[in-house]
Amino acid sequence: AADKINLIPQDFFAELCEQIIQHLNHKIPGVNTAELCQRIQTSGIEINVGDLAKIANIISFLFSTAARNNLSTEELVTTLGNTVSTLPKHAVQVIRHVWNEQGKSISVSEDARNTATVGQFVDIKWKLGVAMSSDTCRSLKYPYVTVTLKVADPSGQITDKSFEMTIPQFKNFFRQFKEMAAVLETV
């Protein structure tokens, strides 16, 4: 991963680290590596989303472990130097700066450690479509609803999950949401 970190310009790496700190502080639901990767690629750097997601997971693990062990900035940098000698100098500088500025704000409560690891809902999009025909059927005229959920997994990676439903399935889905809303009104 160190060779991939070397590819990332310092400003993008700093933005990634800041987003990870914000995620660990529960200020944002996750790190949108797809969007960040697209911006890095637009700047002319060849990196793929999978590699950027691995780097984000490593940095997230690094920051959360440092918070759990209550490491100072110097202890973190010393530990990094002892264990990861191949880390680029600009990356160490960014990690030092971000940890120095925001590292102590990471809250590592016992409740947070013991909670089940589930994803967090970020956004929902839907669209209504009609399948007109296919190679096996000339006249379908079949309406459907496509739903795309944006979800942040426990590590903070934001992913899209899409699925299609028939109109009866969508009506059932909608009914269940209305039931949830009614229960939430009583809380």
UniProtKB/TrEMBL annotation:
GO molecular function: NF-kappaB binding
InterPro entries linked to this entry: COMM (IPR017920), COMMD4/6/7/8 (IPR047155)
Name of the protein in question: COMM domain-containing protein 6
The protein's role, per its UniProt record: Scaffold protein in the commander complex that is essential for endosomal recycling of transmembrane cargos; the commander complex is composed of the CCC subcomplex and the retriever subcomplex. May modulate activity of cullin-RING E3 ubiquitin ligase (CRL) complexes. Down-regulates activation of NF-kappa-B. Inhibits TNF-induced NFKB1 activation.
Domain (COMM) ranges: 120-187
UniProt family annotation: Belongs to the COMM domain-containing protein 6 family.
Recorded superkingdom: Eukaryota
Pfam families on file: COMM_domain
Transmembrane segments: none
